[in-house]
Design a protein that fits this description.
The chain starts with a helix and ends with a helix. The longest helix has 42 residues. Helix 1 packs antiparallel against helix 2 and helix 2 runs antiparallel to helix 3. It is built from eight helices and no strands. With 172 residues, the protein is mainly α. It has a domain of 76 residues.
């Protein structure tokens, strides 16, 4: 009897494994196609349709879609320009390790857009994380920002980078 139970449980796990593998195999290309479709809509100037598609993907946790919604709010594409909302969308993607969105967050902190004042320490933090993540423009942003910071600000920023790096990019 125990052998029959074990065999049934093994078959059940195997069946669920096949189902899960099938879903994973089909969901990634579908999401990629949907993202490409939404980008194509953006390029065609169909911002409302693009945003609707990005929002579906964002609800599924797609960081690229979250960043694109941030871009739309930052530039006022199909929506009223809103720095606070743009920042929040960039932040969602940034916390998932999206280097482009991290660079965007750094820029918002550097300029103080959508917030009471610039914060160079946090700008440095997000530019540094973006550079670690592979954003090609982030090192230039760091190079331009660093001379404007005091030694104390750079030291505080580095502490934050060290805190985030081990969590966000543990193998880099």
């Amino acid at each position: 009897m125990h052998h029959l139970y074990t065999t049934c449980m093994t078959l059940r796990r195997t069946f669920h494994g096949f189902i899960l593998a099938g879903l994973m195999a089909t969901s990634s290309p579908v999401f990629a196609a949907d993202l490409e479709d939404a980008r194509d809509l953006m390029e065609a100037g169909e911002f409302v349709a693009a945003r609707a598609q990005f929002e579906v993907l964002a609800r599924s946790g797609n960081a690229d879609a979250e960043e694109w919604i941030g871009v739309m709010y930052a530039l006022g594409l199909g929506v009223a320009r809103d720095d606070e909302r743009a920042f929040e969308w960039y932040l969602r993607a940034s916390m998932k390790g999206h280097p482009g969105a991290q660079s965007g967050i750094g820029w918002y902190y550097e300029l103080g857009r959508g917030m009471p004042a610039p914060d160079l320490v946090r700008a440095y933090l997000w530019y540094a994380l973006s550079a670690i993540g592979g954003d090609i423009d982030a090192p230039d942003s760091l190079e331009a920002l660093t001379p404007r910071m005091s030694a104390e600000q750079r030291a505080r920023a580095q502490v934050l980078v060290d805190d985030y790096k081990v969590w966000m990019y543990p193998f880099r």
